Amino acid sequence: MAENPWVLSYDGFDPAGESLREALCTLGNGYFATRGAAEESEADEVHYPGTYLAGGYNRRVTDLSGRSIENEDLVNLPNWLPLSFRPEGGDWLNLRRMGILDYRQRLDLKRGVLERHLRVTDGAGHVTALAFRRIVHMRHPNLAAIEMRITPETWSGRVEVASALDGRVINAGVERYRELNSKHLAPLEAREAEEPDTMLLVAETNQSHIRIAQAARTRVYRDGAEPAVERVTDVEDDHVAQTLTLELQRGETLSVEKTVALFTSRDRGISEPAQAALRATREAGRFEDLLATHVQAWQLLWDRGDIVVDRHPRTQMILRLHVFHLLQTVSPNTIDQDAGVPARGLHGEAYRGHIFWDELFILPYLDFHFPEIARSLLLYRYRRLPDARRLAREAGLAGAKFPWQSGSSGREESQVLHLNPRSGRWTPDNSHIQRHVGAAIALNVWRYWQSTCDRDFLGQYGAEMLIEIARFWASLAKWNDATGRYDIRGVMGPDEFHDAYPWSDVPGLDNNAYTNVLAAWVLRRAGEVLGHVEPVRRKELERLLALEPEEVAGWGRIAGKLTLPFIDGGIIAQFEGYDRLEELDWDGYRAKYGDIHRLDRILEAEGDSVNRYKASKQADVLMLFYLFSSAELRDLITGMGYDFDPQVIPRTVDYYLARTSHGSTLSRVVHSWVLARSDRARSWELLKGALESDISDIQGGTTAEGIHLGAMAGTVDLVQRGQTGLEFYDDTLALSPCLPQELQGLHLGLMHRGHWLRLDISCDEVRVAVPVGWPGPHRIRVRNEVHDLAAGEELRFPCQLHGGGWRPAPEASPPDTAVTTEPERGKRSAGGTPTGSS
Ligand code: IFM
Where is this region: Disordered (predicted)? Predict the structure, then answer.
């Protein structure tokens, strides 16, 4: 059957694959999200019905291997899903104990609806058809609803419906965290509300004291009317349930509607969560009413955020799935929530809901479609600038040192011990020395500014972050008399396999190329940022930050003298001393283990260490080619005082690609991007791998614990920017479409400085529709041909996308436009000055 590009669908119940389905069928609205667990299920070896609040963290201490360890977790909130039925006195719905005659599950991406259709037979031979629909409301972020339709096919009689709010939950979603203290909730209140059809459950996190109130209204309808029901409410400290009993005839359909409101003490504009939740359920309409406004909210999101690819339904569906999960994690409802974007979404408990550098892969999509969400995520970082300053101070450094893993407060949340499930050993986790996270934040600030020209943001928040991050790099870089250069020592690059030299007991590597180039970029950019800030604010910032011209000049000097290590033939070395590492027998390990993406764990279990080998988990040096064009990189590297010939890039890509296990889902995104123009076939293979990462769980079990949002958003951005070659320079918009053979066309809108640009790329034509009032570049370069770009115009460039070259169309240029074939020589926006009004 042809794939529906708007639907993720499953046939049959598969207990072994259920936890993966639950993660992929999560519904959320940027305020909270709930895994796609069956309504009637409880947490067990098959199901894990988790609910997570954006920014809903709590800390617990555990004694482990003789150490007291404090972990901060994104808390699994009370389960609001429970909804089930049975013929009176028969068996409650249970997929593992009943005969399943039919089972279909659909996630409707367009409408944000999760559906299940099933027919079951119980021990007494009753055949019943059931249909569930569920939403987590995109417009009213505190609301969710379930509809369960019950049709007895072979029986008549009394039916019981059970509905509950379950606060007995703990954080148990990740097997390897099970030794850690996982009880985060204390019960406060459970009761029936004044309205007998409504229950209330209130709990509080036991350290961060976030109060959570859930109210659930359960009603039944038959032929559009509410029949008389017997209703019994059972109350325990941390659980409240209602059982509704009524008569049902064979062939009749009973509709059960459970409407839930979730409020917390983090909410604004309320007096108190319980009161707000009760009022919201009282005022909520029926399921169909809620559905209508929810679908409308999703439609508005898709109007802005959809990316359409021609004639490849699976790619289309997966790209939409990725956008869908991104917008369920961060949406317009996230704005003002003071929440960052957790690497694993709000979809599971992996990495405890922490926030890493993965924003670097996520923000470009948001910048171009939902800049107000990007801004909100940057403000999450800004609010934690005082913590970042404290971290720098504690390390004896200046400026701001952002944590590798961030949660509630901005302190370092990285774990200190890591369990290798293969060996059963807890080993030190040094990943917090990935200082490059600060550079990623600086880059995100700059890109947002380039894309939006939001001068208020830059003046109030962005410039300060950039300057403080630059100060950190300037203080970390140490002058080396022997080389006459600055070194950055004791860090980790993005490749998490290498955290130390095999010949040293001390964690950290010296002069990681990625880190040093990014540090140089930050130091340079910080030197110019105040030039873009409104003059009065600029003076204020200079005083507030005690910024003197000598300090800025010092940044320039450091940027110009940072060390960059090289190996044979001009290939950039991942870090100093990389050439002393041994080659790994990749074929031997593949033959022995098959899946070697977690080579670090394999080698540790063998009593060896991946630190000894030229083996990377993910792109490290190659990140440079992902983030910067070859011209920008040459500029940066020559600015550091080295020769750099972009001709060496293909060899560098081959070198590291052959030595990478893709143990991080981010890796294939980067490799596909850097190969997009030189090796389309290989780039497509890698993109396909990145697209399948979560939907097919290619890492064998990780997606069930939460999606990989960086890779999800990264694939969308790869199509959006990587394959269109879209770049904004000072005065020129550049396009150089380079789609894989398999994709026949691409259609999207892009927001630039408050205006929507429309791109339609097909096999034989590129069309660019420029909006009225366009404030962006006034020229467009398609491949090497430059044309004027005027507001309100639609330009068409005939081309042969998958072969042959480009030919300029006479009508592409307005009569008085100078057409030049000279390559554009201005700076790309990532390093340039925004044009247009501020
Ligand atoms: O940030 C990533 C890192 O690069 C690889 N390990 C997982 C982290 C969270 O996604």
Answer: 801-838
Q: Which amino acid is at 185?
A: L
Pocket test of ligand 1: the residue of 326, 355, 357 to mutate, having most ligand atoms within 8 Å of its CB, is 357
In which band, very low, low, confident or very high, does the pLDDT at 66 lie, cut at 50, 70 and 90? confident
Q: Which residues line ligand 1 (CB under 6 A)?
A: 343, 351, 356-358, 494, 496, 664, 666, 710
Please report, rounded to a whole number, the percentage of residues in the chain having pLDDT higher than 70.
95
Q: Among the atoms of ligand 1, which is closest to the Cα of residue 356?
A: 1
What's the pLDDT at 67? 84
Instruction: Please give the DSSP secondary-structure letter assigned to residue 573.
Output: P
What pTM was estimated for this model as a whole?
0.95
**8-16 long-range CB contacts below 8 Å, 24 or more apart?**
8/106, 8/107, 8/109, 8/317, 8/321, 8/695, 9/104, 9/105, 9/106, 9/107, 10/104, 10/105, 10/106, 11/103, 11/104, 12/100, 12/103, 13/95, 13/100, 13/103, 13/118, 15/46, 15/95, 15/96
Residue count of the chain: 838
Ligand 1 atom closest to 664 (CA): 5
Residue ID of nearest Cα to ligand 1 atom 7: 664
The SS3 of residue 359 is: helix
Task: Please state, for a pLDDT cut of 90, what percent of the chain lies above it.
Answer: 89
721 dihedral zone (left: phi>0; alpha: psi -120 to 50; beta) = alpha
Write the residue with the smallest CA distance to atom 4 of ligand 1: 494
SS3 state at 350 = helix
**What does the mean pLDDT of the chain come to?**
94
What residues are designated binding site for substrate?
Answer: 357-358, 617-618
pLDDT given at position 803: 55
Please tell me the distance from the alpha carbon of residue 419 to that of residue 432, in angstroms, as a whole number: 16
Separation of CA 438 and ligand 1 centre (Å): 15
Distance CA 313, CA 5 (A): 5
State the virtual CA torsion across 309, 314, 315, 319 in degrees, nearest 10: 90
**Each residue of 171-203: b (16+ CB within 10 Å) or e?**
bbbbeebeebbbebbebbbbebbeeebbbbbbb
Residue with tokens 């029936």: 192
Rounded to the nearest whole angstrom, what is the distance from the C-alpha of residue 512 to the centroid of ligand 1?
Answer: 17
Q: How many CA atoms lie within 13 A of 453 on its CB side?
A: 19
Residues 470-524: tens digit of each pLDDT: 999 999 999 999 999 999 999 999 999 999 999 999 999 999 999 999 999 999 9
CA 708 to ligand 1: nearest atom: 10
Question: What is the CB neighbour count within 10 angstroms for residue 26?
Answer: 28
Residue 86, pLDDT > 80, answer: yes
Pick from 415, 555, 421, 433: nearest CA to 491: 433
703-747 pLDDT, tens digit each: 999 999 999 999 999 999 999 999 998 789 999 998 888 888 999
- Cα of 679 to ligand 1 centre, how many Å? 26
- Ranking 79-83, 568-572, 764-768 by mean pLDDT, the lowest is 568-572
Helix, strand, coil percentages in the chain from 3-state DSSP, rounded to 5: 35, 25, 40
794 flagged as catalytic:
no
List pLDDT tens digits, range 761-817: 998 899 999 999 999 899 999 978 899 999 999 999 987 676 544 433 333 332 222
**DSSP 8-state code for residue 77:** P
Query: Annotated catalytic residue: which of 204, 349, 359, 496?
Result: 496
Q: How far apart are CA 251 and CA 246, in angstroms?
A: 15
Tokens of 650: 């293909």
Half-sphere CA count of 561, side-chain side, radius 13 A: 16
At residue 550, what are phi and psi to the nearest 5 degrees?
-65, -35
Measure 683 CA to ligand 1 centroid, in angstroms.
Answer: 21
Reported as a pLDDT band with limits 50, 70 and 90, residue 94 is: very high
